[in-house]
Amino acid sequence: MHLGAVTTLLLALQFMIFIPTVVSDKTKHIPSDTSKLDAWIATNIREYQQLISESKKDLHSPLDPILVAAEAEVNVIKVRKDGTGDFKTITDALNSIPKGNLKRTVIWIGGGEYWEKITIDRSKPFITMYASAADMPSITYEGTAFKYGTVDSATVAVESDYFMAVNIAFVNSAPMPDGKRVGAQAVAMRISGDKAAFHNCMFIGFQDTLCDDRGRHFFKGCQIQGTVDFIFGDGKSLYLNTMIQSVAKGVGVITAQARENVADTSGFAFVHCNISGSGDTYLGRAWRLRPRVVFAYTYMGTLINGEGWSDNLHADRDKTVYYGEYMCKGPGATPSGRVKFAKLLTDEEAKPFLSMTYINGNKWLLPPPNYV
Ligand SMILES: *[C@@H]1O[C@H](CO)[C@@H](O)[C@H](O)[C@H]1NC(C)=O
């Protein structure tokens, strides 16, 4: 190798090493200013094609290789109730997808109510349920804990990885628990797969509406309605710009985060959300030993109980919960009456919950496909 080649090689190496990271530290953390949120999203959730061309320049890929391969060729299946699509039901569309699926498969769903109870098992990753925002379909069923057990009461349960839903309403239409009927909990959506994203979706139910069961998840522009424990489970999730609506008549509880072991990294981060509705509603209760829940830059209406959080009558959990609030607003966010075991986070404490890194989103998070 002559000197010229060595110089070229050194220059090339230097170029590789000193190339600025695409997401700089300045744009890494979610801004406090709501008007800057869209710009942050555009910087942090980029199109597949853009990521691929960037990764060619950087000589490394930010995305999981299995996802890069899956997105290279996208398969679209259409579901329409009127029979003009490939299938009339979502269940039939799902059944047409082979086990061991390795391709992004978009199930395009026309408007209307689909009365179906759906489980996507682990053998079918890379599925997207997509609908138009102007003609949002709902998937509705009435499963209850009494009939199926809580986690299997879900109208839609997703156990596979790399799931995405866009503009879909997930509904459990079982009646509101009255305190007399046993097993009236009714899940609308259970997400148990890793690396799932929900854009502009609705989750409608009463008790246990959304089972954020396990894995890393992203929710943006969603609406979640319920009464008690209506966002529960052991997931590690970032909820952005999401409407949380309590329809509780008496005591309501938003989260029952299920972290139990010190080594478990799960937790719910709610950032730029809006909590409204009725009831005497708690932000969370310590259903399990070490729940981790943070609300940041979130508006809290008058429905929020002044104490904010409940240890679920387990005083020993006061030492093990991680309940944090950071720069929240509104009448429900007043810190003076809060329980001792809740904390107002410092900038440093809040930071881990305010970036894509929390859910390793740079490895897998993609924007919704832009179909018409
Ligand atoms: C929060 O949502 C309620 C109910 O939709 C709405 O009236 C209110 O303006 C929202 N507040 C903020 C700060 O976005």
Automatic annotation (TrEMBL):
Residues 78-362 form the Pectinesterase catalytic domain. It is an enzyme of class 3 (hydrolase). Coiled coil: none annotated. Its EC number is 3.1.1.11. It catalyses: [(1->4)-alpha-D-galacturonosyl methyl ester](n) + n H2O = [(1->4)-alpha-D-galacturonosyl](n) + n methanol + n H(+). SUPFAM superfamilies: Pectin lyase-like. Keywords: Aspartyl esterase, Cell wall, Hydrolase, Secreted, Signal. GO terms for molecular function: pectinesterase activity. Transmembrane segments: none annotated. Belongs to the pectinesterase family. This is Pectinesterase. It comes from Vitis rotundifolia (Muscadine grape).
